[in-house]
Design brief:
Layout (H helix, E strand, L loop, with lengths): L1 H26 L14 H8 L3 H14 L13 H25 L13 H6 L1 H5 L16 H6 L5 H7 L1 H10 L7
Length: about 180
């Protein structure tokens, strides 16, 4: 049993190395199998939070590396099912990065998925995390719109949070490097 756990941990470490290798070059920081969205520094969050072509490519290269699908430029060569899987995880991770920015601004309550290692989020997305892509953390009671938020029907609160994302991106990206931490 101990040997099996050791093999699983080694595979996890290797997957992290493959996935984070391009990020190490891109961001000049080293990452490991325990790196979570919460563990990313503000400069990386600012880079990823925008959801533009560059940030999407960075998330895609991480996902493809961890899943053993090759490098991001090979995305177009993937079969349809793999492309859909990478896209779903990319959107999920983009949401998590945005929720982390909002958390650092003090806008959202904590969210458990922000502390889960990225390797685990990616490797077990279909089995454990795909249902979570439709949820969101709660608005912080300190946010000025909190009373409006709690007055919303519970099923609409997710949309309420999402409507704040553009303003949150602007606020976070305009903040000083150490703001929000």
């Amino acid at each position: 049993m101990g040997r099996l756990l050791h093999i699983v941990e080694c595979k996890r470490r290797i997957a992290a190395k493959k996935g984070f290798n391009p990020w190490g070059r891109r961001f000049g920081i080293s990452f490991d199998e325990n790196t979570s969205v919460r563990g990313l520094d503000n400069q990386i969050i600012k880079y990823l939070v925008k959801g533009n072509e560059d940030s999407s490519a960075a998330l895609c290269e991480l996902i493809m590396g961890i899943k053993g699908l090759g490098h991001a430029p090979r995305f177009n060569n993937l079969d349809s099912e793999s492309k859909m899987g990478v896209t779903d995880i990319t959107l999920f991770l983009l949401d998590l990065v945005r929720f982390e920015a909002m958390y650092r601004l003090g806008w959202l309550d904590d969210y458990v998925f922000l502390k889960v290692p990225l390797v685990d989020l990616i490797q077990t997305f279909q089995d454990l995390f795909s249902a979570a892509r439709h949820s969101s953390p709660a608005l912080s009671s300190a946010h000025p719109l909190y009373e409006q938020y709690v007055a919303e029907f519970e099923g609409d609160r997710h949309s309420f949070i999402r409507k704040l994302i553009p303003e949150a991106i602007k606020s976070f990206c305009d903040s000083e490097d150490d703001a929000g931490t």
